[in-house]
Structure formats: C-alpha cells, structure tokens
Amino acid sequence: MLPEARHRADGRPCLRTVWTLLACLPLTGCYLAHLAQGQLDLNDRREPIEDVLARPDIAPEVRARLEYIQGLRRFAITEAGMRDKGSYTSFVELDRPYVLWNVFAAAEFSVEPRKSCFPIAGCVSYRGYFKEREARDYANKLRDRGYDVYVAPVAAYSTLGRFKDPVLSTMLRYDDVTLAALIFHELAHQAMYDPGDSAFSEAFATVVEYEVTRRWLESQERAEDVVAYRASRKRLEQVAALMAETRGRLAALYASDLPVRAMRAVKEAEFARLLDEYADLRQSWPEGANTDDFMSIELNNARLAAISTYHECVPALQSLLADLDYDLPAFYRFTRRLARVPQKERSPVLCGGYSAPRGPAEAPEGTAIALEDDVREERVERPWPKAEAGKSVPGAYAVDRQ
C-alpha cells in the first residue's frame, strides 16, 4: 500500500515517522499507522533469497521450500504470463504464525460485508491487522455494536506490485500444492486488481490460481496430485454452493418485515440447516480430503460474506477463460478492460447474485456492454459469459488458510 521506503545510513526507513504522523488522522485513528508500520517492518527485514540460500547453516527444509518457490515464480512468469515485479525474491523470518489477521464484519441482519476504504487498495470487505491482539480488539468492538464478526488468519497477502512482496516464513509450512496455489493467487493480483471491488478482484485471482496450479502440477508430471487437487476443488465447490444458497435465503429473510425476535430465530435455523446439509454432503464423499475443519469455524453473516468475496464472481470468469481458449495473457487483458466497466453495471451480470454457484448469470436486458477486444479479431458483445451451473471453484484463498 505504501511506496518503497528509503533508508538512512543507520538502516531505518526515514519515512516511518512521516507515515505514522500522516496516518493518525481523526477519520481513521491510527489504523493506517498500524498498516504503515507493519509493512515497513516487513520491508526492513527482507533478505535476498540468494543470500539466504548461501548460508552454511540454513535448515535443509527451509532451503527446499525456498528453492521450490523460486521454481513456482519462474513458472508463473515464463509459462503463465504474469508480471515480474520482483516479488518473492526475498525472504522474511517472522516470529508469529501468521503475517496478519483479517477482520470481516456484517450487520446482524445483513449478508453484505462492512467495507473499509483506503488509498490504492480502494474499498475492501475487511480490515487487516499485523497484530492479532489488535485484530481481536477491533472485532470485539464491532461485536459489542451488534455485528457478526469473523477473524481470519492470513499466511500471505499481495501489495499489488507496490512493494516487492517477500516470501514469508508463515508460508513455508504448507504442502507443495497449497503453497503453489498461494503463490499463484497472490501473483495474480499484480496482473489485475480493481480497487473497490473485492469480489471481482479475488475471483480473478482464484480463477488464475486454479488454472496455473493445474498447469504447474502437469508440468511436473504429478498426475496423482492433479487428480487429488481437482477432487478437493470439487468438494470445496459443493461446500461453497451450500453457503451461497444459505446466503441467498438469509438475504431474502433480512429483506422481509418479520419481527426482530422471529428473524433471529429463523437466522439461527438457517445456519443449523447449513450444517445439516453439509453433514449429508459429507456422507457422499469417499475417503480423502474433506472440509471438516473449514466448516467447524463459527458460521455467521460475516463468514458468509468472507466466502462470497472470494467465490461470487468465479463462475463467469471461469467461463470467460474458457471462451478465450485458456489464453491467460488474453484473460488478463480482457479482465482489465472489464475493470473499466462501472461496477454497478458489471457486478449484477458478472457475479450473478447470491445464488451464482448454482445457476447461470443472466444479463438483464440492455446491460450488455460492447468492448473492443484486442485479443480476438471479432467484436465481443457479451464480455461476461453465462456461468454454468455448479462451476464455482473456490480458490485457495488466503483468509481461510488455517
């Protein structure tokens, strides 16, 4: 979020105090100062991966993970057409299990996330904190005001190319497939990000993550991992579909004129229904990866809002990638053009509403926007393809990596 810090001779960033003073404004308190200090701290602690690998005392498992990430980065740039902005060429050892904690919130009777707006990143559906205690304190304040709250630990995040994002020690504990998905997801944000539209931006990164991870595994001739990866995605699709349906029913409930006490009772019953539906779904799965831990986290409006942020627009974007014959650079260019379409016109058709994972995204009459597509010769009259039923593929989104 901040420009690269310049350093004095003693190695401390000379902009730190300036950022702190500018960030402590009455409108935001010192939250922006917290972000500035946290980001600058990461910048200060970066060490080139080549230097880390040259250490004689480096742990073998750390060496193996860093070399693996170097291979992922090369693949993303040379084979997936991602931009080389210097990310993941340095390493930071952290003394905590996660780099930050995201706080999602939604009103008691709303499925819409509470948004926060910032420079560069625009309006996002959460607030991130580098210190868990501060995240919990903020969450408790919102909870006291009647909000549903969800605190999600984060292993990695993207600064959208404003910084050269380092490899964090919090990322190294993941298995090969999850780590690959994480790296590709975060690098995708540097290819396209629309400030103010978290759902569109995260869905784009999720679609890219899924496609590039598959290609990576195939390039490594890891056929069994490809099969397992697809199976785990399919199960996540099914769970995300259940959550989207619950969110749709709750949206209708909250729009009704039901008395508050009765509305609370129906809300509670809907979340109980979701758990029952998951239990039924779980019985249909053979042995293998499952989402039991994922579903054990408290269910509330904020949790549903967090999930929708990452999956609501996925079906249409997956269809768009298919329409472009899985040409990733073309997909990057086309979605950047879509990002120029006003969100209020784009979102209803591209994201398809709360029931998107179960049905097609139909464009209302008169909303199709003609764009000159510099990828193909023909003129594209429908920049948002119809999403096939059941084609939502949840990405390995950072907020739920636990």
Describe the structure.
Among the domains are: 1-45, no CATH class; 48-219, no CATH class. 49% of the residues lie in helices and 7% in strands. It contains 14 helices and 8 strands. The protein has helices at residues 16-23, 31-45, 49-53, 60-78, 132-144, 176-188, 198-219, 223-254, 260-283, 292-296, 301-311, 314-323, 328-338, 343-350; strands at 47-48, 90-92, 100-106, 116-118, 122-124, 127-129, 148-154, 167-168. Strands 1-2-8 form a 3-stranded mixed β-sheet. A 3-stranded antiparallel β-sheet has the order 6-3-7. It has a two-stranded antiparallel ribbon with strand order 4-5. The radius of gyration is 21 Å and the shape is globular.
Q: Secondary structure elements and their pairing?
A:
Elements: H1 16-23, H2 31-45, E1 47-48, H3 49-53, H4 60-78, E2 90-92, E3 100-106, E4 116-118, E5 122-124, E6 127-129, H5 132-144, E7 148-154, E8 167-168, H6 176-188, H7 198-219, H8 223-254, H9 260-283, H10 292-296, H11 301-311, H12 314-323, H13 328-338, H14 343-350
Parallel strand pairs: 2-8
Antiparallel strand pairs: 1-2, 3-6, 3-7, 4-5
